[in-house]
Hints:
Elements: H1 2-16, H2 35-48, E1 55-62, E2 65-72, E3 88-89, H3 94-107, H4 117-120, H5 133-137, H6 150-158, H7 166-169, H8 190-204, H9 208-220, E4 241-242, E5 250-251, E6 268-269, H10 271-283, H11 289-295, E7 298-301, E8 310-313, E9 325-328, E10 339-343, E11 349-355, E12 389-391, E13 394-397, E14 400-401
Antiparallel strand pairs: 1-2, 1-11, 3-6, 4-5, 7-8, 9-10, 10-11, 12-13, 13-14
Helix pairs in contact: 1-2, 3-8, 3-9
Domain Beta-lactamase-related: 52-323
GO molecular function: hydrolase activity
Keywords: Hydrolase
Amino acid sequence: MVISRRAILAQATLAAAGGPVWTAAPATATGRPRVEDSLRAAIRRLHESPHGPPAVVVAIGRGPGTSLYTAGVPQLGARRDPRAGDRMRVASVAKAFSGATALSLVSSGRLSLDTTVGRTARGMPREWSAVTLRQLLGHTSGIPDFSGTTEFRDTLVADLHDPPPPQELLSYATDPDLLFRPGSRYEYSNSDNILVALMCEAATGRRYEDVLRQRVLQPLGLRDTSLPRGPDLPEPALHGYDTTVAGPPEDVTSAVAAGWSWASGGMVSAPADLVRFIRGYVGGDLIDHKTRDARFRSARVAPNPPARARTQPAWPSSATTPATAASTATPATPSATPSFTAATPDGRGGVAVSITAQITRRPGRRCSGSCGRSSSWPSECCWRIGNGRTRAGRVFAAGRPVGGTAAR
């Protein structure tokens, strides 16, 4: 499924950047298929592939409107096509929303890119005190990922629907020592996203959800976007499925409460809203020119693992090529709908790609048996909830560990 997903995102991004998507002609004068036909074919191939998602949704925005390209249905048994306003859990695209909120506060002078954790987020380990907002946004902080610890996994499994208050999520990073010198390398950490949201709260004296609504959702007119804490998803919705189980795909839409990932992965949105968001965010509707220019800078850092140097985007949704700015998300909970967003640097074109099945390794591969503390769950670990879902080599049914291992 990896190749098909990449093909969809590539074709959709080309269309958003100005490819000839609005024509129904099957080919150009040279006989080459037009972007629209290639996009539809890629969507169909992914949907019809073994263990493919029940729905694939691509929303493309150019000018004032949004066009929708779909395959499948929003929920198994439904008799309609997916719609632009169908809500879904958007997983780690949530980090782009927290980035937009924080940078809006930077633009207004309420925060600085050099504001430190120790200055704003009270009660955090002293080892984190010198880490800056800039480093949190770029995932170069060195702060360990709370969601990769045994303590977090055990607590999560004990009650999937009852998350702790947001600040308590960071208490699961039981070893507060930094993994590396801040700014020296890149390593994704869900802790960074939580701290960004807590810094927004400290700078405003308001709940992050309220700051997000005032600074991002309302200015961009995102009426189908929210940050809930519970497991329920309001209808109409794109349901998320596990397609690796034996038999029919398993609906895992409400398997885990959104509060377990909060600002790092708990957002709910819709295809049309995602397009409006990424166009407005990348195009500078929420931030001033100085902050926007800083957003597009990239830092040369060592990757994890440090096999070779690479250019890592400095911010969520920052520029990855001269033509586009993209945010590629991994699922933050097993109930999320993997989503990918991209926009042209001027915000005139945008795209959101969503699939309603978890991104997993090939069926038949087995769990490694452990998840390192730097892993971003569940993309580096195994999940099976309900009908034998596994996490880090442990199988549990209906939230109860039952031992053994299962295929990825």
